[in-house]
Amino acid sequence: MIMKVLIVDDLLNNRILLKSLLKGIEDVEIELADSAAEAFRLMGIVDDHINTEEPLESIDLILMDIMMPEMNGVEACQLLKELPATRHIPIIMVTAKAEMQDLESAFNAGAVDYITKPLRRMELMARVRAALNSKREADKLRRVQAQLRRQIHQLEQDRQASPAIAGGEGASVSSVASGNAMTTQDMNEILLRLLRFGFCTGIEDTSRFAEMIRAEWKIAAKNKALMASVLVEIDNFDEYEQQGGEGAQALVDSLGRIMLEVITGEGESLYPGGPGRMAMILAVTATDDALKKAQMIQKHWRAACEEGTLPETSFTISIGVATVEPTERNLPADLLEICEKALQRAKEEGGDRIKRN
């Protein structure tokens, strides 16, 4: 996944030097700004305001010079940390002199780190890599939390509509989700419980799934993105379950954990796809993006089988992948139908493989 770094410095030579020093970091794009005002413009901030409270996805890290005319780096950092859309972006201060007072002001304003001039390439790259890794994990946690909130909200609606559900697993999930100190693993486990609850109660019906994908479809159409589906089925799961296989649910949980691990971007969601199945819906920018997700899922599943971490290690998975461009002439159902056909081809050819449209 490409991550974007914004370099903010009023001196052209400094900007060029920083950019050249960061060339060794893979999957990083560099943006340049000659002032805090120019940086704000690049991020869509006008008059100290941005027209959204959603986390800004265009910038992943800012390298900010402390000493700049008009608005210095500390003031710019403080403003960015006050705006909901930009407060999650880590900021590393770049300074010619590590004055204790300046550093204290920078950290109080929300900076996560600093580096002194003259710049040392190895130190710079290490600090930037660390900041980007932290940002990547924070983004992943935020996405899982967002999906968790959506799932819990829908579950609460179902509980209110159907007294038969009340007092079930959903109640404990809601109480756990209200906690504050939750890790990505915690969130993933709760999501798995919600998905499992769906299998037990039937709330994963087609109308619910269609409602969820329609919402993602509208967003993709608005952003002129492609929409993709990855449908994964555990081979021979039906026979195993009918024979009373004790590890059936544990197998599905394992598949869910693996698929949650490969969710890395906005617009990526995981839903129950039926017995022994999981479906991933995602907005993508290239036709191969969904295929790469499928390959990662298959790779992780095979590794888990080899390592013996699955409850049953003899099972393989078949995967169908489909990608379409949302338009007025097609519907979410078309995507799901194409993906289902791709999955069926994978199964007909013996399973343990990936097929795409």
TrEMBL record:
Record-annotated GGDEF domain positions: 225-357
GO biological process per UniProt: phosphorelay signal transduction system
Signal peptide stretch: none
Domain of life: Bacteria
Keyword annotations from UniProtKB, A to Z: Coiled coil, Phosphoprotein
SMART domains named among the record's database cross-references: GGDEF, REC
Protein name: Stage 0 sporulation protein A homolog
